[in-house]
Amino acid sequence: MKKGLKKMIAAIACMTLAMGCLSGCGSKTSSKTETAASAAAETTTENSSDNSENADNTVYQIGICQLVQHDALDRATNGFKDALIELLGEDHVEFNVQNAQGDSQTCATIANQFVTNDVDLIMANATAALQACSNATATIPVVGTSITSFAAALDIELDDNSCTGINVTGTNDLAPLSDQAQIIADLFPDVQQVGILYCSAEINSVYQAEHIAEYLDALNINHKDYSFSDSNDLQSVTNNCVAECDVIYVPTDNVVSSNQSIIDAVARPAGVPIICGEESQCTGCGLASLSIDFYDIGYRAGEQAYDILVNGTDPATMPVEDPQSLTRIYNPEIAADLGITLGDEYQAIEQ
Predict the structure, then answer these.
(1) Which residues of the chain have pLDDT under 70?
(2) pTM given for the model
(3) What SS3 class is residue 214?
């Protein structure tokens, strides 16, 4: 009788100890669910002022797929990372940054690996990266940046609130093309023909070329497309463009951004000015631009990612956002070489 009672007491003690051990354990997923549920009761502003909701051991795994390395995309990636580090705390976020070296198939490989690793969120930097990441997953949130048109890139229609309706949101990199066309008209009122120089393999560049052509038509400015399939064709196409045009327009184009010196070596000696889609191109080969700040759009994409991770916001209902800051800039070295003076509304790029 006593011996049986002792066995019963021992069994109860073991069960109590086991239950205590289980209650102290938790999976990565449950930890994040509890964190997000707790944070949802507070506003984004309150959450950004301190990182108290991350006092547990939650570490968010973020995959970053960047199409190619150049200054504009690098700045967007840095802005994205800085935003999440500031909002989450550097101990609560880990980044896996992968560069596809300009190859769309490599983007797909990177995206599939992120899905296999079950990352918490993917940042897609540039159009080809966004396409690959969207194709790779319909469940993991994807935040894109440096995208000319989410609708064109994903072959969808955004709703009236600029939402995708799928697991994708982010920030555009497109300054208004109508204003860029107007810069050409204002700076070169006697222009005979504008050459639109772009990579035909980039859907974002094709989109810009088609739309700025419409605005040039509205301004009664003649224009002609000069497209190239990759960097191997760039010099010969640029030669043709310079020979036939007195002003060149280049959109936000990753091949152009990675090969500015080739274009500059042809256009500047010939005295042909280039109007660019963004600042890093203007630094390398352009006279002027209505430019956005890629760090800013990357940072805003990071804030969107935070809202998804911590507040549980659905990317399908989160509007895709346009750049908030636009600046007229010029390259003083190229302006001097071409003998062109720009007005006070243009800010000189710091070389």
Answers:
(1) 1-56, 351
(2) 0.75
(3) helix
